[in-house]
Structures are given as structure tokens and as C-alpha cells.
Amino acid sequence: MMRQAGRYMQAYRTLAEKHPSFRERSETVDLIVEISLQPWQAFHPDGVIIFSDILTPLPAIGIDFEIDENKGPIIDQTIREEAALSSLRKIDLNKLHFVGDSLKILRKEVGAGAAVLGFVGAPWTLATYVVEGKTTRTYQVIKSMCHQAPKVLEKLLNHLSHEIAEYMIYQIDHGAQCVQIFDSWGGQLTPEQWDVWSKPYIQQAVRIVKKRKPDVPLVLYINGNGGLLERMQETGVDVIGLDWTVDMADARRRLDKLVGIQGNVDPALLFAPLPAIFKEIHNVVKKAGRHRHILNLGHGVLVGTPEESVAHFFDTARSLSYDSLFVNEMPQVVANT
């Protein structure tokens, strides 16, 4: 479940009171492991996601950032012109030892009880922070660069693509059994713009990873991806993550049956009565069919979500079977992460 460790859990809030810095929580091995395991211990999902952030590798590439607990990430050293590209470095994986060490511990801790999952930000999404310097609603600066400084943006995206690929391989080498790529802000581009400014750089990263780790599944998620599904499968990933605005049956028709689908329960559904949660999960699974579906939310767990509802989500997932959903058809496993 995306963002299954976080502020909706009392255990996390208690820990955060003692360790108020997000970067401390996400860059200290003991805290990473403890937070990552909190939902696994509480709800027993099929996947344990390392507690981290898509911006975590940036300092190892030469781009430092801070997290303002109210405003979000802040990057003073923005890259908007040719001269600023000189600050970029090949990724120093030694500076990310806390990620590797945590993954090793998680892999040992959960054993065969769950898959250990890593994640990264897609080049375009990372570039929005590096260029804008903060979270934005308009993406005006980086979109302007597409027209006014395209060569600079191309060089930035190309660099991020190669280094993020190395970071994905690093996660896999240290215990991640699946890696999800978050192009969180790819949906801010038109489909044609996404073809130019995001897709090629995801494709490049996927090719690098698949050449060295061909058997490790890769997932691609974009928030607001209804108009991009066919394009997403062209990146070479194994699984397409759907947000909740896409009809699951329509997505299944549009995508190749060899491509897995993840999702796509509305996170806000977890505020509904428990019977409504059960009904919608049943509906999503049935629409997805019996081909390569990973039951998940269509976005991260929302702050304030009742823990009882999260537990019910996982209990419901475990209770379903294709025998009951598809009479006279051979079932496949439905997983939840």
C-alpha cells in the first residue's frame, strides 16, 4: 500500500514527536527500519516498503535539499542554466549507505513473509524540484525551460536518468525485490510533452536496470495518468500503477495483458464504512480480472485515515479469491503492497 507507513499511524506520530526532523527519520538506519516495519507488524501486508523519499538520493548527486515541515522540500541550489549543471555529480552511493543498510535489515527481518520494496523518483519529477526549488502548483519555471532552455533541461534529465538507474540497482543489490518509479508530476504534462520530457528518460533508466537486473519487476506510477496509460507501457516497466480516477476495466482493455496493473482504490474510500470498503475492493479486483493485478490504493494513504480501515483493506484482500469472483476460471494470486 502506497505510503503505508506514515502520519495516519499512531506509532509513527509517537516516533515523530521524538524525532521531529523528517531527514533524520528517513536517513537513520534504526528509524528507517522501525518505521518501515510499523505497518507490516500492524497489518501484515504482502510488501514492506522502505521508508524514504524520492529526493533522498539528490545530495549524493550534488544537489542538497532541506525539508520544511510546513512547506515541504526546499532546494536553494536550483539548476536553470548551463553553468549550474557543473554542480551535478555521478551518484556517490556511499552517501546512501543508510538506504542499503536498511534494505538489508528489512530483507532479513521479514524473510519470506513479505516482499521488500524500494522506490525512486522519475527524472522529470525530480527535475521539477531541482528547477523550481520547491513544491509548486504551476510548474511555470520548468515548463518555460522546455521552450527557453531545452538543452539545459535535456542534460539535467539525462544525468538524473543515469544516476537514478544506478540508485535502483543499488536498492536491488541490497534487498529490494521490486522498485517503483514515481513520476508524480508527469501528469502535469500533456501526453505529447510527456513523450518528450519524461518518457525517454524513464525508458533509459529502465533499460539500464533491466540489462543488469532483468528479473526484478519495475512499477511505474503517475498521478493523473488516465491519458498516458498506453504511453506508460512503452517505457518497458512490468507493472503500471493506476490512480483512482481511471476505471479499472477501461485500463485493462487499453493495456497489454502481459503488463501488470496496480491499484486503484480511492484512498478516500478508507474513510467510508467498512462494508463500503469491502464492496469497492471487490469491484476493483473483479474489474481487473485474473491477469497480473496487484491490489493497492490509487495514491498514498491520507493523513487521518483510520487504522481500522487500513486493517480492513488488508483483511479484505486476503479474504478474496478468484474462485468466488470468477466462477469456472483458474485463479491467480491477488497481492497487496
UniProtKB/TrEMBL annotation:
Record-level GO cellular component terms: chloroplast
EC number: 4.1.1.37
One annotated GO biological process: chlorophyll biosynthetic process
Pfam families hit by this protein: URO-D
Keyword match Kinase: no
Quaternary assembly: Homodimer.
Protein name per the record: uroporphyrinogen decarboxylase
Protein's organism: Ceratopteris richardii (Triangle waterfern)
Biological classification of the source: Eukaryota, Viridiplantae, Streptophyta, Embryophyta, Tracheophyta
